[in-house]
What we know:
Layout: H1 8-27, H2 29-44, E1 98-99, H3 110-124, H4 137-145, E2 154-156, E3 162-167, E4 175-180, E5 185-189, E6 198-201, E7 208-213, E8 220-225, E9 228-233, E10 238-244, E11 249-254, E12 261-266, E13 271-275, E14 285-287, E15 294-299, E16 306-311, E17 315-319, E18 332-333, E19 341-346, E20 353-358, E21 362-367, E22 372-378, E23 398-399, E24 406-411, E25 417-422, E26 427-432, E27 443-446, E28 453-456, E29 461-464
Amino acid sequence: DGHSHLSAYERKRLKNITENAKFFAALKLHEVSARLNQLTTKRQSHITKRAKPKKVEEESAPRRSMRLLRVEPLDIPLLETLARPAAEEYPQVPAGPLPMVPEDQPENSKWTEALLSTWMRISEVNTDHADQGTPDIKRYQESLSSMVLSEENVRKVVKARVCSMAIHPSQSTILVAAGDKLGHVGLWNVSCGAEEGAHTFIPHSFQVSCMHFSPCNPAHLLSLSSDTLRCADVTRAVFDEICRSEEDFSCFDFLEENACSAIVSCWDGAVAVVDTRTPGASSELSADIGFGRTRTVHVHPVNKHYFLAAGLVDVCVFDVRYLKAKGNKPLSSLPGHTKSVASAYFSPVTGSRVVTVCADDKLRIFNSKNTQVLLIFKKQSSKIKANKNSQPKPAWAIWDPKQEHCFLVGSMAQPRQIQVFQDTGTLLHSFHSGDFLTSVCSINVVHPRLNILVGGNSSGRLHVF
């Protein structure tokens, strides 16, 4: 049609213009206009118009803006014309499966192949081990004190603020994944120690708010953004799409050890049940749990049918077996929160404790069996009043998977640090490094077997202790 160089939208626009022109031509409006003009002229021909008096002086020409005329003013150089805004820097990611190709890198890059082959190799190793038991507090403190941060273990992995992280369970190689607010997913092979060890992918169009390596197949990395849940399958080098919705996802957790189903929370307060085995990209069930907003969901480590949901001021336990579209009632509620709750998680081994982080700067420890408040204490924070536009994302308190009674949380105290607390409120250890940790790490992740801690900050930088 002579317009093959145009986009589909521009070709559609030209087609609409052509069809509109033909329609108005068929109406012959120009003929009607000429006839009306003729009739009007005949009616007014007998009217004698009064001649306008001639102006004595010609009016001066109207003043025009020199800026609009692009004329350089006298004695003032004209600033360079601003460049025309370029096309959208981060276009929308299409639906469906996507190839696992890093940003700004060719598909057959040797560095990319090395990273993906490493991920595949360490995922083939059996990561299931017998329970090592929870170490006593003294030995645990000694292991924390032995962890340090060095310059080579600090790397900018994603472009924007880190919103989620996951660490591969391998005990031979440290592989960390991070998701940022632009929809990027970064993979960093910390063990290789080379500049080429980190690569960035773009599987999402929006913020990556949650991500987990599959507990039964660590060759799969599941990541959640506001519109889609994807699974990065390194064996096929593809980002599969598991679920797509317009309900604005916020968090997810696996309902089974085989990772075949998951509970997904939505910002509007509802939760959805997703089965990865069913075809299509829709959820199995969408349930209204009565929340105004749901930020996080977490499944009980022993009784997988129980899950914990945290919202505005609501923290409740539900049974997934009895979920329905409307009229869901919680099994129990964890009261006392007066402001927005950032996160709520069961303790990792027995699930007998729940730690919550609230916008009132308080950490709360609950007994999950009878929902009794065991402890409330203030987060240690900086006394310097921060600008509201520079406030970091609310820090999440996460349990150390190796220790049933201890959890970690980022702190705004100076020097910047990540603090480890016992469920009695005792501060056991503070991770800090004046030279290499100078920002707040609001998102943290701990290795399930090794003494490895990773903290992410608002500039996309990861710190590995």
